[in-house]
Amino acid sequence: MIKVIFPDGAESSFEEGATFFDVLKGHDREILKRSVAVRVDGVLRDLRSTLKGDSAVRVDPVTSDSKEGLEILRHSASHVMAQAVRSLYGNVKLAIGPAIEDGFYYDFDTEKPFTPEDLEKIEGRMREIVKADYRFEGEVLSKKDALDLFAGMGEKYKEEIISELTDTTVSVYKQADFTDLCRGPHVPSTGYVKAFKLTGTAGAYWRGSEKNKMLQRVYGTAFPTKEALQVHLDRLEEAKKRDHRKLGKELDLFSTSEEIGSGLVLWHPNGSTVRMLIEEFWKKEHVKGDYSIIYTPHIAQVGLWKTSGHWDFYRENLFSPMDVEGQEYIVKPMNCPFHIQIYKSHLRSYRDLPVRYAELGTVYRYERSGVLHGLLRVRGFTQDDAHIFMTPSQLEGEIKGVLKFTLYILKSFGFNEFDIYLSTRPEKYVGDLENWEKAEAALKGALESSGLGYTIDPGEGVFYGPKIDIKIKDVIGRSWQCSTIQVDFNLPERFDVTYRDENGAESRPIMIHRALMGSLERFFGCLVEHYAGAFPTWFAPVQAVILTVTDRNNEYAGSVYRRLREEGFRVELDKRNEKLGFKIREAQMRKIPYQLVIGDSEEKEGKLAPRKRGGETLDPMPVDEFVELLRGEDKPAS
RNA sequence: GCCGGCGUAGCUCAGGGGCAGAGCAACUGAUUCGUAAUCAGUAGGUCGGGGGUUCAAUUCCCCCCGCCGGCUCCA
Q: Distance, angstroms, CA A410 to C1' B75?
């Protein structure tokens, strides 16, 4: 007999050879219903596998609503999909089919790419397979037997995977006549994959390398219940509604033009107003934060970037040089060399440090056409850039200061949840190891003494130094990479940046590169999606629109309009000969925070009747009172 | 850059080898109206661009451009 200990502390005994089905059945039938696998002394196993060995084991059910369980479910769904594809299309080779963040995919090597109709066909066949409820049966083979098996099936990708495994045995799973290489575990049978949907196709390189063959990937998702699947699909719908590209058009915020070129953004008056307000706020806060605001040119001699190292590291992303009287110039891909030149325009003393230069610097990078995406990935964008030059002993304190400043700015725009990452030295790097270690330690120290939780992203640092990235969470839970704080020992070296230390000796300062919003384009796109276009009053392009009920009210409405304008508010006056309902609808669709209704009764009493964007109507109030109300909202969140 | 899809009026979209369609927006007129669409009329197009097949191409084929979903990349 083997003693089984459950997570709640309960214990029972079973014969060796009992399946985990039997084990759970005796413990809790409800949990068994939701279980897709078990953890046995910490190791994931199939429900169908059996108890053996030790005198006592701990058994934790893995339910489909847990993170692990969901992964198992989705992984099984990918096998169901592979089975469907295999049965529908003859000459298909299987590559890999893992569970991912929001679902699963499977890569196939096919003669013809899948069409949307194929997707429906595959989904239909998957439903048949689910209905047939085939058992997932695991089997362990020797490496050689497995190689023979998959070689016999012509599965060259599986062969490649197996031959690179170091284990002496490999496991395979079968359902009906379909066999796949798989570590497992799986749900007990295909019937468990009740709620799934195929979501798209894509080309994907074998093993993620451009040098390899492009395979056909099919994406799908699966959930424990139809309801959970629907919630997920609704969330995708919601994200679609918030898409900044769609809202950008609807709210007349920005556009791009085929005649101008890809990835180059035109900021329309509405979008420009938001940007202007962001920039004004940004500048004011940077002055308060002891930064000097500077401006630098858009083109410069290519030598600057040869010195910086970017010419070697990022040449394929730089726009081609232009010839200016025999000198090669490029349009700038970053601002740092300019800031360094300003620093170097004087001899600096340790007493001058830290020196903080901030610039809303517009840069241009040649992004490959396939990667462009709305405002989030463009070829011309404005960084809210700054470079801080400091002594080594100032480093940690400066990083702390930047962290605090960053969170303050982000919170001002209504973002309150963050994921913080510390990216360490990548494979391709410059500089010596000692400096890298110092820099990583300084970043870590600043995070820890600021009491901020973070995740380490190994090898994701920039070639010249480690960095902290802050991702903001939007209102529907998506992450956006905006802020970055990078330590750099390299550029000061390359540009021979110096200061005189306490002993009058020439010393090397350290630089921090940092951007809080990243780029204004990206940050704006994020704001659009976070607020679904309904911007807070303080940076809404139009804060209020006055709506007259009839022509009789035009004169009074005009005086209210002038008053609000004089107070500095962004107000419009809609005195078109239209019904009130029509004007409200239009203002509502433009997501203007306040609609101010003025009819005969308001006019008589010198009032206005505010209606909020959400539909709430306020009692008519004197104009002065509304001025106070609006003034109260016309400022950042924190 | 690569794989796939798409590109028709300002916007959203229908159509399809034989005269180019709707709704909204625009414009004109009527209506003076109280919290999400008043009515009528008018105008609007190189069907992304170039080439080819055809008596005839917006429709079929090829190339290019742009956009979308991914892959790869992202200082």
A: 23
